[in-house]
Amino acid sequence: MAAPIESLLNEVCGSEEPIEELKNLRTAVLATPVSGLREVVSGARLEIIFGLLNTDDKEQIEVCVEILNHVLQALEPIQLAQNYKAALQSGLNHPDDSVKVLTLSQIGRVVGHNDGVTPILNSAEILRDVIHCISVERIAVAKEAISALSKLSKTKAGLDALFRSDLLNKLKDVMTTSDSIRYRVYELIVEVSTASPVSLDYCANSSLISQLLEELTGDDVLVRATAIEMVTNLAQSQHGRQYLSQQGIMDKISNMIIAAESDPFSNLYLPGLVKFFGSLAIMDSPQQVCEKYPVFLEVVFNMVMNLDPTLTPVALDTLGVLGGTVEGKQVLHKTGEKFTSVLKRINTVASEGANELRVRCLDALAQLLTLPVEQQTDDLLLLTELWFKCLSSQPMVMIRNISMQPFSELHCSALRIFAAIACQPWGQQLMMDTPGFVEWVMDRSVGTGKEAKDCKYELVGALLSTSSIQEIFGSENYLKLKTYLREGPYYVNAVSSVTTEGAD
Questions:
Q1: According to the 3-state scheme, what is the secondary structure of 113-167?
Q2: CA nearest 280: which of 316, 261, 253, 299?
């Protein structure tokens, strides 16, 4: 393909109105795999295509971007940085956002490469223009700029360039554009900070993290909500959590939850506070977090009991994630009647609420009841059995009734609850004692659609994952389950039919 593409480039170069020639070149380029383009780009005059971006013709720009997007992948980052630095800088200042996105993605490739990063680090103008792109209205441009700068910060030289030079002032200037742009910069800072303790030190010394933390208690509740989300992301790394703890942020957020009770606008940011502590509990220790900040679990329970449509979903998700761990189960169990009341409320909503909330309830229950074989102890098996039986007087019938309603999402969520208890001996015994349940499990006509068939298959797999199943279900049912599993989720019984042609 080298000769045809070179020939097509010549045709483009010799045309005053090159759109048709560009389309022909695009066809040839897109038909050539990136590996096949490597021999082409080394000798190709790509500056021709870069030059044709300087036009008001939207179609011409679009075709050029498609060509370059494919061709530049064949260039080594160091080649791109050394041979097309001027074209990259021009692309960053192009009025068309698609050109900016293309350019930023290529700069991201360059700065993410050990050899390519140096030429970019030596070009302060390019880096200033990349920072400026964070403030471009179109979010796709800003995302690529943030990604490129984040990759740049993977090296000490990159961190020095961004945080120990005039570029830091450029970053702070961009932040003054608007609230939304300021939070794009915070997004970059958090992304860089989570990479390593060294990166966090650079960001902390820039004063930008402390500025973010101050926004947690700002007057604007929407800004506060966004700040909480950013801080939650910062807490994803161990060194990030350690830093936040040193700054007293956990205590501050705990106090914000307490104060939220008297704030009429708390619905806007309270879910974020709950997510913060939920994330913290899973990454560190559910017991330590819930004991040190008891208001967290208290608020989660209240959210479920009060059925606030803006707060209940996040509370259900939090309970599910928390109770999906052994330590989380033990923490919830220690609250006694409080959690039993919450379970009964979840059951009521799962049976009678709006479909979206019912699904959230069922999914939370599935996580709470899940207990893999390797985690099963007598105490934990008693705990999950107690939780299941407190849902209603006939929980098996209740869940199966939900599964038989004409809504795929409800059907699958109910099956996930059965799958959760299917590997626990008490769950298997309940299934065996429920009239018609075993036959229902193996009936392939129950539930249509790929997801429903997959969920039923997972239920059968969960049943067969334990050594107790053959004793409880009996040999005949055990063999039928094994056959179901062997045949796969989409097996269809062949129905033979006889037709008599020519019969009167």
A1: CCCCHHHHHCCHHHHHHHHHHHHCCCHHHHHHHHHHHHHHCCCHHHHHHHHCCHH
A2: 253
Query: pLDDT per residue over 309-368, tens digit each?
Result: 888 999 999 999 999 999 999 999 999 999 999 999 999 999 888 889 999 999 999 999
SS3 content of the chain, % helix, strand, coil (to 5): 75, 0, 25
For the stretch 229-254, pLDDT in tens is 999 999 999 999 999 999 999 999 99
pLDDT-wise least confident of 4-13, 72-81, 268-277: 4-13
| 469 pLDDT higher than 50 | yes
Instruction: Name residue, tokens 């105490």.
Output: 379
Cβ contact 203:193 at 8 Å: yes
Name the residue type at position 460: V
- Supply 136's token pair: 């471009």
Q: What is the mean pLDDT of the chain?
A: 90
Q: What is the pTM of this model?
A: 0.83
Both tokens of residue 498? 């006889």
Distance CA 238, CA 435 (A): 51
Provide CB contacts within 8 A for 407, sequence distance 6+: 355
- Identity (one letter) of the amino acid at 2? A
pLDDT at residue number 43? 53
In whole angstroms, give the CA distance from residue 347 to residue 332.
17
* pLDDT at residue 376 is higher than 90: yes
CA 103 to chain centre: 26
Q: Say if residues 158 and 152 touch (Cβ distance below 8 Å).
A: yes
Q: Give the Cα separation of 298 and 282 in Å (integer).
A: 17
104, 144 in Cβ contact below 8 A? yes
Which two tokens mark 383?
Answer: 């705990």
